[in-house]
Amino acid sequence: MKTQYQHAQAGTITPEMSRVAQREGIDPDRVCREVAAGTMVIPANRLHLSGQTKLDPCGIGRATTTKINANIGTSTLSSSEEVELTKLQFAVKYGADAVMDLSTGGDLDGIRRFLIANASVPLGTVPIYSMITGKPIEDLTEDDILATIEKQAKQGVDFFTIHAGLLRKHLPLVQKRRMGMVSRGGSLLAKWMVHNNRENPMYELFDEISDIMRQYDVTYSLGDGLRPGCLADASDEAQFAELETLGELVLRARSSGVQVMVEGPGHIPFDQIEMNMTRQAETCHGAPFYVLGPVVTDIFPGYDHITAAIGATAAAYYGASFLCYVTPAEHLSLPSPEDVRVGCVACKIAAHSADVARSLPSARQRDDLIAQARADFNWKEQFELAFDGSAAREIRHRDIDDDADYCSMCGRDWCAMRISRQVKKSLDSR
């Protein structure tokens, strides 16, 4: 069976491409052309499309609205299917277009099956976490790698983060960094390479991995094992050396008929974001860019959903297609369901703000409608149009009854909108 990429290369518009076109309000032919060019991906494992909970396909690329991802999952200190289901539900409710299961504790296969069975959005994983369950990374074998990837593909996972771009020759560059490696997958593979005195097995097995992914139409999310974890390490030699390898792997994935996107930084000063987005697009042949944040300052733990949203807005404006949310728990703790909610809202603000600035078709439609509702003092319509109308309604109702046509910021007599109306009426009557 063909992948979405192979169908698009043949000029065939699949039902998934048609659904993406419908959701985005663009022509199906354009979706097909973008997928064929590799500038759009539709992460949709064919088994998830026909699974217990039907996947609603989404397109990730510059021709579509900016998508956001929510990371959920257990840890070795906390594991609960019920909590992860709540996180999944919160993520989808508050705007996540995709979810990644980063579980490292508990029954990893069971949790993954459970989430896929309940996910109507694409679900991604980092397979290396399951490869080393109950064994040290140093003992990882080629058979472990291929068997785990095939098992997860058969479960219906839609996209895999594979850290294949980190090579042995890059490791000395890490020594120059303040924080070294902050990618779990990257650090694990670096440890394996040093211990075994061999090249990254994900790189060496890349074509075999691609063969498995093609069978199920799993999309590559090429992981950035050398993403910077602080401003001091941003845009350094190590980061860009790995990026060059990722560009090579993009072409190898496409030659195998596999859809591919590329992951990016990380912690980046605001003034370096445009350069990073431009460089990625050029180096990685237009593959959709999937960025974590970027976080634009290091001194706000507990508020990194805000620092990331600032960077994410710029990233999405300058070239990123897919934003990975950051929660208030970043650098501190496993996110709670409430952290997931807050992280999604902050990331959705960034994505939407960038889409408005990019003048995407209909991106500003709700903004203009809610502006008119405010001008009309139509509070009911404002809450219906708001992204999180229940939160807005709750804040308003702290001081004002439902039937009041003003808010407690100014009251009736000091309301600028009322005064503006009076001025307009006076001018119109002259």
Task: Offer a quick outline of the entry.
This protein has 430 residues and is α/β, with parallel strands linked by helices. It has helices at residues 4-9, 15-24, 28-37, 46-49, 81-93, 108-118, 128-131, 142-155, 171-174, 184-196, 201-204, 206-216, 237-255, 273-283, 304-318, 337-357, 365-375, 379-385, 389-396, 416-428, and strands at residues 40-41, 60-61, 67-72, 98-101, 123-125, 159-162, 219-222, 260-264, 289-292, 322-324.
Features:
430 residues; alpha/beta; two-stranded antiparallel ribbon; 20 helices
Approximate strand percentage: 5-15%
Oligomer: single chain
- Taking all Cα atoms into account, the compactness measure Rg is 23 Å
- What is the helical fraction, as a range of percent? 40-55%
Taking the alpha carbons of the first and last residues, their distance comes to: 73 Å
Shape: globular
CATH topology of the largest domain: TIM Barrel
The whole-number mean of residue pLDDT values reads 95
Structurally, how many domains make up the residues? Answer: 2
Spans of at least 5 consecutive residues whose pLDDT stays below 50 are none
Number of strands: 10
| Highest CATH level, the class of the largest domain | Alpha Beta
Annotate the secondary structure layout.
Blueprint: H1 4-9, H2 15-24, H3 28-37, E1 40-41, H4 46-49, E2 60-61, E3 67-72, H5 81-93, E4 98-101, H6 108-118, E5 123-125, H7 128-131, H8 142-155, E6 159-162, H9 171-174, H10 184-196, H11 201-204, H12 206-216, E7 219-222, H13 237-255, E8 260-264, H14 273-283, E9 289-292, H15 304-318, E10 322-324, H16 337-357, H17 365-375, H18 379-385, H19 389-396, H20 416-428
Parallel strand pairs: 3-4, 3-10, 4-5, 5-6, 6-7, 7-8, 8-9, 9-10
Antiparallel strand pairs: 1-2
Helix pairs in contact: 2-3, 5-6, 5-16, 8-12, 14-15, 15-16, 17-18, 18-19
